[in-house]
Amino acid sequence: MKKKSLLLILTIFALCTLTACGSNPKNFTSGDLTVTLTSDFTQSKMNEFDLYLTSDLVSFTAKEESVNDLEHAGFEITSLKGYALEIAALNKQNPDTLVDRGSYLYFIDTKENQGAKYTYIHCMFKGSASYWICEFVCKSSDYDKLKKDIFAWADSITIK
Questions:
Q1: Helix (H, G, I), strand (E, B), or coil: what is residue 82?
Q2: This prediction's pTM
Q3: 3-class DSSP state for residue 141?
Q4: 5 located within any domain
Q5: Into how many domains does the chain fold?
Q6: CB-CB contact of 60 with 136 (8 Å)
Q7: Which domain holds residue 62?
Q8: CATH number at residue 100
Q9: Nearest CA to 83 among 111, 102, 64?
Q10: Residue 75: which of 154, 160, 133, 136 has the closest Cα?
Q11: For residue 155, with 0-12 CB atoms within 10 Å meaning exposed, 13-18 middle and 19 or more buried, which class applies?
Q12: Which end of the chain has less Cβ packing within 10 Å, N or C?
């Protein structure tokens, strides 16, 4: 009986861990961008990003790029699709990998870092005078179980 009880407790704990049991929605904001993640995420600083958030399984970054800065850098971007195509090209992705999700475009790629394989979900948004690149990163082995949450979080992103 004790073995069954222990097994049940361990199973419940594992399910809660995998499904973020007990995590509450939490908004994070940087400038005009707000994303709703969970209370499992903590905010840190990383020089090249406007927003850097991490949990045990997923990291999230966001960077705003003004239209003026992009023009000064030599880019002639006039639409969200144009911005997304530039981001895809910089990541050596085929433009056909871009997916339109309504309020944003995204593509997924996989990279290896120090022997571990990671999945990157690159989401591009348009603001009033800027573009945003947001990235969710997780171990590739965790992607299938996290995919639903990641896209719910991406769908929650708003730009004023």
A1: helix
A2: 0.84
A3: helix
A4: no
A5: 1
A6: yes
A7: 23-159
A8: 3.40.1000.10
A9: 64
A10: 133
A11: middle
A12: N
- Terminal CA-CA length for the chain: 57
**List of residues 6+ apart from 135 with CB closer than 8 A:** 60, 61, 62, 120, 121, 122, 123
Find residue 139's DSSP bridge partners. Answer: 118
User: Hey, is 15 helix, strand or coil?
Assistant: helix
In a domain, 3, yes or no: no
Task: Please list the pLDDT of the chain residue by residue as tens digits (160 residues).
Answer: 555 443 334 344 444 444 445 589 999 999 999 999 999 999 999 999 999 999 999 999 999 999 999 999 999 999 999 999 999 999 999 999 999 999 999 999 999 999 999 999 999 999 999 999 999 999 999 999 999 999 999 999 999 9
34 touches 158 (CB < 8 A): yes
Of 17, 14, 43, the C-alpha closest to 28 is 43
